[in-house]
What we know:
- By secondary structure, this protein is of the alpha+beta class.
- It has 16 helices and 36 strands.
Amino acid sequence: MFGKILIANRGEIAIRVMRACEELGIKTVAVYSELDRDALHVQRADEAYLLGPAEAAKSYLNVDRIIEVVKESGAEAVHPGYGFLAENAPFVERLEAEGITFIGPPASAIDSMGSKTKARDLMKKAGVPIVPGTTEAVDTYEDALRIANDEIGFPVAVKAASGGGGKGFRVALTEDKLKAAFEGASREGEKFFSDGTVYLERYLPNPRHVEVQIIADKHGNCIHLGERDCSIQRRHQKLIEEAPAPPWVVDEELRAKIGKIGIDAAKAVNYVGAGTIEGMLQDGEYFFLEMNTRVQVEHCVTEMVTGIDIVKQGIKAAAGEPLDYKQEDVVLRGHAIEARINAESAPMNFAPTPGAIGGYLEPTGPGVRVDSGVGAGGIVSPMYDPMVAKLIVWDADREQATQRMRRALDEYHIEGLTTLIPFHRAIFATDNWAKASTCTELLEDKAWLKSTAPAEPVVPVESDDAEIVTRDYVVEVSGRKFDVKVHGEAVGPVAAGGAAAAPAKKQRTERKKSAGGGADDLPSPIQGNMWKVVAKEGQEVAEGDLICIIEAMKMENEITAHKAGKIVKLAATEGEPINTGDLIATIKADAAE
């Protein structure tokens, strides 16, 4: 077993890997950017080394510096977590050349599965069912148009060959939307994965996203740990995951089928470690989608229902040890659900909301797990992913696990930062969730998303008015003290249980006003970089028309017109940084006013 491991990541996944190392008696080495100097993963590790500036390209993606730190620290292996360098085959090749163990699959497996076109071709040859489409890159828009019309039909999905996590994925519902989808997928592939090649697939309009967890060792053993249903997504990125899938979605026969598909896919590339075969399930048909050659964000729900520590098994496999389990040892017990607590605003189309955290209190109790990388006083930076934490619950069945999740969400308090907690509270209370629908109809309903916003807080304002006022009292009843707010004109000191209550200053209650401009102004909902301005000053727009695209927290965020009218002022400038609340445009319904 390794004596020391470097974790080439940050946030909650870095801490998750550290916990596994601590239980295995392994020393840990953290790396960090200048922005993360005081981060929790840095404080927890046995050693920590600075990589460079905040930009990921100069820190967490700086391969030369990471290898320097490995040598300087004496670490024998590198765990990549997910994201950053987790699926970077050249990085693994560099480690192998330096005699450093990579905790994950060999570079050849990452290369085979990292390119979606290679993976589709490989799976097709291995007899694994794939979504109909191309198995080679589509070089030009003209080629894409011909293939879509002659071979696949519309709607069609355009995907970056090296994409993942919802990036480099665009859909053309009709022929006139294909060019924008082709260019958008290629652009994101180049930006996030340095590979602008794309391929085409038949677009399945409302499939279930069902994936299977596999683990393999260096001795030829490979098992699956059952499936996860990850169908609730926004912009093709997951929001909620559960394991196993609802029983009316995946029965024992289908579970065995997709488990075999997962094992066959892993063996086809001589896989080692933890990985996931993602698939699409529609009308009883299951299609291979892609393989994630790393530990998944949602691995936790599988751990909760199997009792198997996936991260520890991956570390052991990399060290050359055989798996601790055989397929017959894998038993699914109960039901687990994970909610991603992202710094995002669902009412604002899931726009990132980076910022500082004030008070912070995580839920606890039976069957509740929180994987987080922040705490009180922490910062969620626009430089990185918007995830704050993952809230995972387990109970005997799906219905009871849902009730436990709702209780845990009510206990979760994050002050000073907008998160998806209100959204999750709302969605877990719907019939859509209870019936295990994909909830697409809710996620595309702007009115419903806006309804998930928490009520605006009532804040007391000092006043001498004789109107309705709010007074604060401390009242003691049966030996316990309670804070009480009384609305109305006071009649003097109040006593309860024999104890007098002291009135506070006279106050008037007012609703806290929302940030932003007037009815005509369109302010930026997020902090980021103005990547592209689509609209022009003087242009007539309808409500919902695209105005600009802001890049923030590794996401392209489309900003649309909040009303119909004429753009009388366009303040946005391409390539310039923009802060939350900055004016993007002024739109008037009647420009003559």
